[in-house]
Amino acid sequence: MSLPVLAVAGFLGAGKTTLLNHLLRNGRGARIGVLVNDFGSVNIDAMLVAGQVDAMASLSNACICCVAEDGEVAEMLGKLAAVRPALDLIVVEASGVAEPPAVARTIMTADSEDFHYAGLILVVNGCEPEFGHGLPVADLVVLNRASEVTDIDDVVARIRAQNPRVPVQPTDFARIDPTLLIDIPERPPAAQLSFDELLHDDHDHEHPVYQSVEYTTGDVLNPRRLLALLRDRPEGLYRAKGFVDFGPGHRYLLQLVGGSLRLQKRRGTGTQLVCIGTGMDADEVRAALHECTTEPADENAILGVHKYVVQ
Q1: C-alpha dihedral sign at 15, 145, 123, 56
Q2: Is residue 197, in this structure, part of any structural domain at all?
Q3: Which of 76, 80, 174, 204 could pair covalently with 15 via S-S, beta carbons 3.0-4.6 A apart?
Q4: What is the pTM of this model?
Q5: Is residue 215 part of a domain?
Q6: Are residues 257 and 126 in the same domain?
């Protein structure tokens, strides 16, 4: 199973560290690995650290935090991917001065069968919005301190001017629902409260609402049309998961996070998709997916699918 690797970027003071701490404390059972420049930047509570070996700290909630210099990212990603019990997600923090496209390229270059690049999250301070070079390539914008922004529509418009269809999630204290980023695995409940639950902030359980749009059809999809749709996603669409049917022998499990698409061969027939994001027009999303069934595919259309297929 290949681990998704998310990059988190943003200017100093935007809320990257707050977001990382929130995910570590409120992962709803997800095992998350975090790659940072130094432990101090995450400010892990001493009670949460179960053990530390070299540059890797094991947390009592089964999460992992580790440190890597710029040239060590690939090596540390490999170590995190080898952790047992296995992690569900790896998050790489770009330092305040790092160029987000460079961070994304580093992860993509290190890409292996054990982990894969799953997109870039850009954290923006809504009161003092700075975007830099990360906005055009961002897959999700977390608009922090949203309740303090006088004209949030203006800030969103400035974001959309550089990245027209990127999902924008307004929030405070960088609180986002982890299920927007990842499917939380079902695990047996613990017999007693863990440190994770004891340290959980009771005021931190409410998250900004995101949307999910379901689409089901027994009609065969045109692969060329669907791939074009996923490249130029409907506004606000961040993630999609489910099954797509391109015809006999060509049904796949689809996993889309930002611009990262992965397909795995599956048996059966029919398409069942769930699209996840914020600010989506549900009717537009369903109509766009329906359009993928209206034009029969030529015999070469399936060839474009192969580059996204993984074992």
Answers
A1: positive
A2: no
A3: 174
A4: 0.78
A5: yes
A6: no
CA distances from 261 to 224, 239, 240 (A): 14, 10, 9
Strands laid side by side in the 3-9 sheet? 49-53, 56-59, 64-67, 32-36, 89-93, 3-9, 115-125, 140-144, 168-170
CATH number at 291 reads 3.30.1220.10
Q: Is 42 helix (H, G, I), strand (E, B) or coil?
A: helix
Residue 15 lies in a domain: yes
Looking at the structure, do residues 264 and 302 belong to the same domain, yes or no?
A: yes
Q: What is the mean pLDDT of each run of 10 residues along the chain (311 residues)?
A: 86 86 79 70 42 45 56 78 85 72 81 84 93 89 94 94 91 88 65 41 50 94 95 90 95 90 93 92 95 91 91 73
Scanning the structure block, which residue is given the tokens 């297929």? 309
101, 88, 119: which is closest to 230 by C-alpha?
A: 119
105 and 233 fall within a common domain: no
Q: How many domains does the chain have?
A: 2
Task: Give the residue carrying structure tokens 């949460």.
Answer: 48
Class of residue 60 by CB neighbours under 10 A (exposed 0-12, middle 13-18, buried 19+): middle
Which pair of structure tokens corresponds to residue 203?
Answer: 């005021």
Count of other CB atoms within 10 angstroms of residue 106: 19
Cross-sheet strand order for the sheet of 271-277: 211-217, 271-277, 237-245, 251-257, 260-266
Asked, for residue 112, whether it belongs to a domain, the answer is yes
Q: Which domain holds residue 140?
A: 3-183
Distance CA(62)–CA(212), nearest Å, equals 28
Q: How many other CB atoms are there within 10 angstroms of residue 303's CB atom?
A: 10
Which residues 6+ apart lie within 8 Å of 58 measured at CB? Answer: 49, 50, 51, 52, 64
Boundary residue ending a domain (183, 202, 225): 183
